[in-house]
What we know:
The complex is a heterotrimer of chains A (264), B (617) and C (115).
Chain A: H1 3-26, H2 37-48, H3 54-62, H4 64-84, E1 91-93, H5 103-125, H6 134-151, H7 154-160, H8 163-186, H9 210-237, E2 239-241, H10 258-262
Antiparallel strand pairs in A: 1-2
Chain B: H1 9-24, H2 30-54, E1 61-64, E2 79-82, H3 84-103, H4 118-135, H5 139-157, H6 164-195, H7 200-209, H8 215-233, H9 241-248, H10 251-277, H11 285-309, H12 313-332, H13 337-368, H14 384-397, H15 404-416, H16 420-444, H17 466-471, H18 493-509, H19 513-526, H20 529-538, H21 554-576, H22 588-593, H23 598-616
Helix pairs in contact in B: 1-2, 1-4, 2-3, 2-4, 3-4, 3-10, 3-13, 3-18, 4-5, 4-10, 5-6, 5-10, 6-8, 6-9, 6-23, 7-10, 7-20, 8-10, 8-23, 9-12, 10-12, 10-13, 11-12, 11-16, 12-13, 12-15, 12-16, 13-14, 13-15, 13-18, 13-19, 14-16, 14-18, 15-16, 15-21, 16-21
Chain C: H1 4-22, H2 26-48, H3 71-102
Amino acid sequence: MSLRVRMVVLAVGLLGLAAMLVAAFRKLPGFGGSWHPYGQRAVETALGRHTSNVIASINFDQRAFDTMGEQAILFGAVLGTVVILRTTRDERRVEPEPARVPAPLRRYALAVLPVTLLTGLYVVAHGQVSPGGGFQGGVVAATALHLLYIAVDYRALQRVRSVPLFTLADAAGEAGYPLLGLGVLMTGASFLENVLPYGTLGTLSSGGTVPVLNAAIGLEVAAAVVVLLAQFLDQAIVIESEDGEQGAGSVGDGDGRRGEGGAA
Amino acid sequence: MTAAQLLPVLVAGPLLGAAVLVATGRWLPRYVADVFGAVVAGAASALALGVLVATAHRPAAVEWVGGWRPRHGTGVGIVLVGDGIGLGLAAVVSVLVVTVLVYSWRFFDDPPPHQAGAFPALILAFQAAMCGFTLTGDLFNAFVFFELMGVVAYALTGYRVDEARAVQGALTFGFLNSLGGYSLLLGVGLLYAHTGELGLAQLGAHLDAAPDGSGTLVKAAFVLVATGFLVKAAAVPFHFWLPDAHTVAPTPVCMLLSGAMVQLGVYGVARLYWTVFAGSGALPEAAVHRALLALGVLTAVTGALLCWLQRHVKRLLAFSTIAHTGLFLVTLAVLTPEAVAGTALYVLGHAGIKAALFACAGILVDRFGNVDEQELHGRGVRLRPVGVLFTVGGLALAGLPPFGTGLGKALSEEAAGGWLTVLFVAVSAATGGAVLRVAGGVFFGLGSPPAEEDRPHAAGRHRAGGEEQHEDAETTGADEPEETRERVTRAPDTMVVAAAALLAAGLAVGCVPPLWSAVSRAADSFTDHSGYAMAVLYSTGQHLTHSPAPHWSPAGVTLGLLSTVLAACGAWAALRTVPSGVRPRWSLPLRRLHSGHVGDYVACVVAGLTLLAALVW
Amino acid sequence: MSILPYLVAGWLFLAGCYGLATSRNLIHAVGSLAVCQASTYVLLLAVGYRRGGTAPVFSDIRPGSRPVVDPVVQALTLTDVVVGATLTALLLALVVQVSKRHGTVDPDELRELRG
């Protein structure tokens, strides 16, 4: 349809939708009210299971089945990206070129790397106690690894980032959820039932199965982010079409070979 | 261990299988990965069927994941409900996945490097998502599986990345379905704010007790959530992703999308209505009836017209799926247990028949690298067994007794009644006729071959200049890349066997009376609003008076034969008289509406939201 | 005005839809979709807010000493964020391939799959 027709259709749709949303919002309970029945129950339940981070208790215990679906989405999306960004028949892989990095940048990135990694692991490990958890910490830990790319070059990152190994870790993290669930099922309890001792509120070993599932998620997220970024970085740096054109170079200006941008 | 406790395994098992395939994909030979995938899917199917049989005459299996059983009707957990319709759909999905994995043993020459298991792994994750969606009794959990279904399906649709059209179709699919998902989530947010609950049964119980005056909010929430499901169901005007995705997706993926996933959207609307909204005075039954009927008629007519106008065989089948979705919605709009039973049997039969038709189309792709009706004219003569299967599929699609599609159609006509009978006959005849036209031309060389200048040449008309394209919006099926290692010289046995088995399954649905009474019982409890809440929240079963089991009526048989004859006559007339490639001018606006432009499609979805709201208000 | 936060959520959804429908660049379209999704975050968190409430984490406050905001919507939002991030990655991967195969990321120039 022509642009004019599309805009008319869109305008009708947006106006109608706006009217419906405003009408609905006027009937919602006022912002900031104190009536949260499910939330209240969730808090009491979390404390009953000695999990001081209520959100972790919801994600990994009370509504753990949601999180199983959620981590499957992450797993599926990463697998999908691996499939979609694979090297096709009319493409080849080239060796990335070494890059020169300004010394201050190099020093800073290398100094921050271990700190970032440790922060990530800390956030994963304390998911049941304080804000954070496997999702957040996993992303931080995966970011740490990529500081190598900033500090040195893509070849350095490639050396420590074994994609097969991280794929294996991704799959192992993904399998953690169903495996634990099925294991619990074998004992006669319900799938994903929290059968471990609840421990002491506020300590690392509190929450029963919460830290276990949290760790599985941390492993999966960290590995998945590494594999995911590897696909995009490979597109920008390693994969060329047979006639020598850079794979994704035409998408945007920022995707050029890093050696050119970083060597200034 | 009880049968109910095994319900989560239907989701966890395939996910675990997918993880194993990805972990070992580096070392596994291709065929081991394929066999492993089929075994895992087969085990899940056996489990689903086992639980279904074990609980056939008992109250639905209800499992609170993690043992979070509610006290006094309130809880914090997520519930899985294996009632007849939900668990039955999970079983159908699982069996279809096994067939698809067997069918695709000869598929795809270039799995991603070191990922031999990527395709079966994605299919297993898709299976887990669909089973989770059918079993869950929690609205937010349904959103999670809705998104998982989506993410995996986009990747599968774009699987053949060296194909320009494949990535475009997958992207359109992704945009529209994600937008639908966010609409769904906005609706979940509204319902949560209003009721403070997420479980379907709890939401329903709360709305039942809610005071008047919240009608606006409840209606808006219904519109937003239902829009998400209707995008998945490909109801017009939310349907634009479906033809594009089916045109480009690998054939096994089309079988799953058209055979199962689209119908889950319809299931979602029905489940949502009966568990959450059916007891609420805020959303009158008449409003839901009006909305489903209007959208259903629109969907059925649009789908049937465009189906008839296609020459790309997979696209033609895609539009026939849209037409049938419309019929499902029209039947559902009656909002009675009989209507649900009719729809369920129709969906069952349709799953087998439509998947079989796609399987036959896939054989054409592999044999000729082409699925263009005009280009292939007369070239399929040597694939006689496939031609016979394709013809039988066309007849079944038109509603020929005793196929399951025929029974579903007959029961739906009975439930809907009145002038809608004409719609059922016409739409079945048009979609079946289009398939028969292809069968006659391609496999039996009937009619006159297209004039030489009409044939799009090797370069493909879709790559020719924009002007001609603008005049006559169409997608040809030329230049379809083969999906097998090399072009096959004869139809591979696994493919033919899979297609035949699917047709046989579609036939069986219409011939096995015990299945009909089981579906009827399932439909009775599916439409029992308070019974669902009692079973889920208080584990108490209510005794239902069952409606009589459905059966073939003389009128149904007659109308089925009528639509089949009409389909055959239409196909014959088309092959005889209409010069190939010329389409009526009146169809141009309708075809131009399908512009392949994601902006147009999003505008239509947003307008569709408003249309749905107007219908419900 | 006690419905303002909800209106923000509604506005974001409409703005995202407008961006998607009028986009001239597929990367921008993926961004617009993320805006639509942001509206769901805002709505969920607004729904769960409680005046004077703090984070529902009891590592440094005594249970019962202060009201906390609704933890359920926070958990839902976390799920939603993960869904959004992974979906964005997958769609961007498809955009990369569209760019390679079609030589453009302008939806107006993708002229296949019609009729």
